[in-house]
User: Fold this.
Amino acid sequence: MKNISLILSIIIAIAFTSCENNNGNISTDVVNNSKSAAGEVGNSEAPVMTFEQVEHDFGKIIQGEKVSYNFKFTNTGKSALLISRVSTTCGCTVGEYPKIPVKSGETEYIEVTFDSKHKSGFQNKAITILANTQPNKTTLRVKGQVVLPQNN
Assistant:
């Protein structure tokens, strides 16, 4: 009985982690950056990601459509902002982000694309950004209602 529970737990863990889309490797610059590694909250020199909004509602999406939204952010901190990874909750959602440092005062975008193929009903997807900020994780959300196409 214990073996069956262990195997079932492993299968469930693999299923949940296999849908994550990590879009590349972690940058060694961020891993070695003392501002992100030290865990010091309130560091006045740390970069800060300031988003205009952290959630976007696509409204009604016809099943099979790909829709995109650009989340606009500004580095309002005092040092360069390095994004090491943008991960999503499912392979149906992809996040594109700047691969170069965002200097203090600069504005950039994280483009999130949702593919509604094989989806139906209300969808709510999380996009997690890992960067050299405090805290080092920021979560964005896209949502929408996927409806079946009408036959004419």
